[in-house]
Amino acid sequence: MMFSKSSLGYDPIPLPHRADMSDAEMQEAAQEFLHKMQRRHTVRDFSDRAVAKDVIARCIETAGTAPSGANHQPWHFVAISESSLKQAIRAEAEEEERRFYAGGAGDEWIKALEPIGTNADKPHLTIAPWLIVVFAQRWGEFDDGTRYKNYYVPESVNIATGFLLAALHHAGLTTLTHTPNPMKFLNDALGRPKSEKPTMIIAVGHPAADATVPRVAKLKKPMSEIASFHEG
Asked: What is the CATH code of the structural domain delimited by 41-209?
């Protein structure tokens, strides 16, 4: 149990880890990480090559180190390799996707997706060796069973999901984020409580030998469009 009503006081401790890098070392580290993340690609063509559970677990553990509102850590990750469960999730997701592409999304959204090459078929949900379903916890419970409110839940879960994607890439894995809407079926399928809302399904594995990416995916906005600096 994360919280006890009897131990909610402020108890500061010395900063346990401190980076001590020169300016040059910081420049080099920032550049190396940029190059690492520039080699991350969203892939829809997966190999069925197995991935060890421990690798997935360590990446989820990394996600769990993300900052969160009031340190409530309002997330839960369900990792799935069971074939029958992946098949059930794919069937439900594709049903939602067929409604999406049949008009539920609107013409503008469908047009925007054309360069990405997506459709209602989601074979990656069964071919990829792992699916990780991300849940946002809208409230938690004290050790006595009473509820407490979680704060900045979407922001906190989004940060943790970013940590997870970066960790999976760092481990040499490929990912695909999938957001069927609505996703309420995932609570029942995975036995998660009503306090949790599924936000994303992440397919995880290795790319197929003939994997491709849309050319448009390599077009990234320049720094001048994504950042502004007000220097003192």
From this structure: 3.40.109.10
